[in-house]
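A protein record pairs a chain with a discrete description of its three-dimensional fold. The shape at a given residue is found from the number at the same position. Here is what such a record looks like in full:
>
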Amino acid sequence: MRDLHRLRVLVEIADRGSMSAAARALSFSQPAVSRQIEALEHEVGAQLVQRLGRGVRLTDAGMLLADRARGILSQVVAVQQELRAMSGLRGGRLRVGGFAGVNAYLLPQSLAHFAERYPQVGLSLSGWTTRHHAADLRSGLIDIALVTGWDLTGEQACGLDVLPLLEDELFIAVARDRRAGRGGFSRGELHDLAEETWIEGAHPDCLGPQPEFESALGFAPHIHFQVGDWSAVSRLVEMSAGVTLVPGLLAVRSSGKIALHSLAGKFPPRRVYIALPEGRHAPAAEPMIEILLEVARKEGELLSGTAIH
């Protein structure tokens, strides 16, 4: 499955002509696309892509593999469709674990598409945080879950099959009509937020790993509010009660009363993954994965078209 994802990355580069365009189509960052290509080149033992200034060009080996990959990927999709038609997915269930950031838009859209295509499969959704998803997957309490890279450190990923879904850029959120700190706030002036009140959300829709976040800011934030509900966090920001960190999944539909400032280059994006029990995938998991990837790509396109300050 991981190799297929690398092949998809190569095909996207071939079809779209650049790594940045492929990254947007796959809802990845450009460095993530580069890592996938480097891993694929190491695996096949050949250079597949030539970097030419800001652009790229596939080598002969890259063009050959991309051409073969299109056939491989289309055959995989065809086989999956045939198998599902054979079984009809006429019953069973799929228990999904989410968290607030994906429960707001991405998962409801995915579940709705799934229910439309496979109405006889019972669906359930649980979780507003990811803290217990890994254990619940291993114990069989849920079949598939969306988690973040912050949940997969150390032994937490043991016993799981993990697939990349998207890279979620992070933004500073402040009230649009408020001058943060003494001298206002704009991208590159994070120190102006040193005296602000910060709002901490529920994991993983939160300020992230504290040491990394403090390093990006250049100071330790004064966290006075700890709020689990995103609508409450949003309302506090709108009322100039504090500032916070917002993932792109929520930023694209944030209130017009909130100004968003990108942390690109200062703080790494939050990586969101699809996690399943290792080697024990529910029959309905594969079609759900396809739908999740499709919806995540559209969410990435929506974010790229959103005006961010």
